[in-house]
Specification:
Blueprint: E1 4-8, E2 13-21, E3 25-30, E4 35-39, E5 55-60, E6 70-77, E7 80-83, H1 88-98, E8 113-118, E9 124-130, E10 137-144, E11 146-148, E12 151-154, H2 160-171, E13 177-184, E14 191-194, H3 200-212, E15 215-223, E16 227-233, E17 235-236
Amino acid sequence: MTSQLIYQYPPLMSGILLKRYQRFFADIELTSGEIITAHCPNTGPMTDVCIPGSLVQVSKSDNPKRKLAYTWEMIKLERTWVGVNTNLPNRVVKLALERQLFPELADSYTQILPEVIYGKNKKSRVDFFLPSSQKNIYLEVKNVTWAQGKLALFPDTVTTRGQKHLQELVELLPEFRSVMLYFINRSDCTSFAPGEIADPVYGELLRQAIARGLEVLPLRFEVTPKAISYLGKADLLLQQPDPQPKKIKQERELS
């Protein structure tokens, strides 16, 4: 399929990543020579993505109440821009749902309701609840930036929260449709697999969930300093082929 533009960025500023620290902060040297501290809206380890010396793009807010005026939006790895702002995937998915761009879901829902409480204990929120005249859909979105070659991987760290989301989605079956959407936030990956190296438990839970009826949509997006476009579906590989031994720092997720 041809790429379909979904989201346009406000004017961005170029710079070079100097360092990221305390998860939420990134020191960046703008092309003007000014060194700024930008908010890093990605609380994860950003495995193989956070590389000092790389070209980055930042946005600037005019809100005087913000502690940091700049937000780190993306980083360029070789020839590919990778989205850093984890607040954007849900916004982009909502825009795509409004236009019914995903054929696996198109024409099957009548509303788009974000952040709906669900689960046995009613203590969790699903990213989107899509009421349908056929079978209601619970849709969870996961941001994916880690890659090995053309293979996108999630997660890039042990994620008990992600494991819980899989289990909660399975509990909804078969009464409802449960869908896990992996938002591949870079255009250089054509396939997707669970990140077994980082979290073997997640990989096993994902396979079990699919066997129970969980629907998985690994979707490809192109990020540029101008816009985000939808590229279509990636191939799903349930077993990561020939994983390379690599020590992954196990970190507790903050979001």
